[in-house]
Amino acid sequence: MASTTTPPSLISSEADLKEFLSSISSSSILYIDLEGNNLCRHGTISLITILLLPDNVIRLIDVTTLKILTFTVISNDGKSLKSIFEDASISKYIWDVRNDADALWALYHVGLAGVVDIQLLENATRVGSKKYVRGLDKCVQYDLKVGFMELNRWLRTKKETLTMMSTGVFSVRPLDAKTIQYCVNDVIHLPSLQDVYMKRIKTDWLEKVETESVARVAQAHAPGYDPHSSTKTHGPWGSGTTQGRLNVDDPFEYLEEQREEALADELFPYNDDVGYYDWDEDDRVNSADAAMDDTFDSCWDRGS
């Protein structure tokens, strides 16, 4: 998990937005997530969460308050959020870019360039069938070494947030502390997941991921794009089983993953409604955390 040197903060003024934009350079890496009511061309964008590396800061940009100024305010060094999002030289990582790209383009005519979709990185490096894409929640559980109690809190808060999605929780001001934490958790694990998958991937498959990431953005801009299509559960490479030849350890790692999944399903039965596909903001919750006090952390989480 990425650590932050400063607490996450909400940007709801032009001055704060200008200051944040000035901190972004061509060497910055952005991990991005959007929240809204029915996040797509038919809905709204309420918040944009950005984890900025190497600065290790998280900012929530208040689109509900700033509206179009979110994308048109220009920093002292001449940058806007629109120009940054559309600058291919600035690296950006998103989990399932499609409805985010759809909403940005349809509602504000803002494009996305320089994007790698981490959901595609997972699909490309997976041992076994690539027929269906996986959701962020499954990948955090099975691909990262998250402490038992932390994961339990994360899943519990996700479940609680899911029940509030219909109330327009992301547009309520002031923002609830749990809503802020939810937004933070939607991006906080992305660097670690990216690192896991980049260590596995072969060059030819990385090129496929980069090409397909661009294609996903283009598809989301198309007039006929359906943000709620059932085909979005499908991976782009069919049922191909591997990215290449398996090494001797791969079958054992796959069996261990299956065992861990079965154990997790037994330990966290309330997570049964969250499957392999990461539905967009109107239908799903990606992640949440820190709902409970650290008093209940086990010795496993504390490393003692």
Automatic annotation (TrEMBL):
Pfam families: DNA_pol_A_exo1. GO terms for biological process: nucleobase-containing compound metabolic process. It comes from the Eukaryota. Coiled coil: none annotated. Residues 228-244 have a biased composition (Polar residues). Residues 11-195 form the 3'-5' exonuclease domain. InterPro entries: 3'-5'_exonuclease_dom, RNaseH-like_sf, RNaseH_sf. Keywords: Exonuclease, Hydrolase, Nuclease. This is 3-5 exonuclease.
